[in-house]
Amino acid sequence: xxxxxxxxxxxxKVRQGLVLSSKMSKTIVVQVDTQKAHPRYGKIIxxxxxxxxxxxxxxxxxGDEVLIMETRRLSKTKTWRLVEIVKKSAKSLEARVENxxxxxxxx
Length: 107
Description:
alpha+beta, five-stranded mixed barrel, CATH 2.40.50.140, single chain, 5 strands, 2 helices
């Protein structure tokens, strides 16, 4: 039985991209860039696509590089979920440090 579970999860698509927005509650917008050859001319072009992904703890911030995985439909536009944050952006790290300093000053 566990083998079936492993096979089932490996069929799901996984994408790595950049968080553009985290303004919605428990939702992030991720931009995934892929490179494809032009059908006629063969030139390599970059194609961008935006995905809405579920972020349960609201941990991802704009500029973060994240890994998302395909999942069941959660809403009209949301069919992906956040797996992990690969790399934090410098802006989000600075904001966390500032918030921590403000909380220390209050105490």
